[in-house]
Hints:
Residues 7-302 form the NAD(P)-binding domain. One of its GO terms (molecular function) is UDP-glucuronate decarboxylase activity. Helix 3 (89-110) runs parallel beside helix 4 (146-166). The chain is 38% helix and 17% strand. The mean pLDDT is 97. It starts with a strand and ends with a helix. It has a 7-stranded parallel β-sheet, with helices on both faces. The protein has a two-stranded parallel ribbon with strand order 7-10. The chain is an alpha/beta fold and 321 residues long. Uridine-5'-diphosphate is lined by residues 81-82, 177, 189-190, 193, 205-207, 212, 214, 248, 271, 274.
Amino acid sequence: MSQKRILITGAAGFLGSHLCDRFIKEGYHVIGMDNLITGDLRNIEHLFKLTNFEFYHHDVSKFVHVPGDLHYILHFASPASPIDYLKIPIQTLKVGSLGTHNLLGLARSKKARMLIASTSEVYGDPTVNPQPEEYWGNVNPVGPRGVYDEAKRFQEAITMAYHTFHGLETRIVRIFNTYGPRMRLNDGRVLPAFIGQALRGEPLTVFGDGSQTRSFCYVDDLIDGIYRLLHSDYAQPMNIGNPDEITIKQFGEEIIKLTGTDQELVCVPLPTDDPKQRRPDITKAKDILGWEPKVSRSEGLKVTYDYFKSLPEKEIQHKDF
Ligand code: NAD
Ligand code: UDP
């Protein structure tokens, strides 16, 4: 059988680079695409020497052309951390809407199956916990996070429309907070923020009183869930995440213990519309994909801490967002 060709957008980012690794390992020809707005070529530089890897430096919100056959498209390009999408709100809206439309058109012309990276943010500040896929969410469209949440909700809607009206093969993964090596130390997300602060000997900044919850999934588990979803025949949205829920205050305490610092937690104001609770209902992933997370938070955090600790000192000290 001929080698399968897959386009991965956002390839130089955290999740995109891990997806490139996985599909290379599975024997695919991988075409990475990224405009490097929040990504870093160092995440994929080890792939440049391979003959089954190509890279296009391109903004997917502009017309996307890829020569040759394509069997799969994974659309992961998008700013993903709150400070990124608040800094570049229009690009965030464009990559979720125009970018998705361009890639759906490409998928249609190549008869490729397309999987989009949606998010637990489509549930907004949820009023039910845990969140099942049937929950429609509680999003403020004009609040600061609206640029990300609504881009992702539109992304799901247009993807489902291509599925329904054009018969395109599509998959929608709703990703819950994921962590691991290759996150940017200064991307503002809570895990790199806390580890960076611990490494620099600064207090850990807990937003609000720290009673809000999140459920953190290790990257290898997430990638495996996405791999299974892509190869399943399930076209409805699917949650992939780790249901082990924790408050941000407890999480800060865990990081202090892990890093062995004697830092303290300091409370700073809670950002507008910060969701109070978040935990995936993964019944569907278990039943349909036979998937559930395997890596405990203590194992995953250790690997991630070792990664951040090994970064050059200059990078650890650089905290400009
Ligand atoms: P990231 O910022 O590390 O990676 C995103 C990549 O997309 C970057 O390399 C960036 O340069 C690229 N990109 C952004 N706009 C682009 C454009 N217009 N054209 C081409 N490339 C562009 O973020 P991540 O954590 O790897 O997130 C990847 C995807 O997963 C995003 O779509 C995000 O919304 C989704 N997601 C991530 C999480 C998580 O916990 N990491 C949770 C939910 C959803
Ligand atoms: N958070 C925090 N301190 C930080 C960064 C984030 O307390 O330095 C909180 C943030 O308010 C949120 C949680 O940690 O309640 C997760 O934030 P993150 O940006 O990682 O992801 P998201 O809010 O998108 O889930």
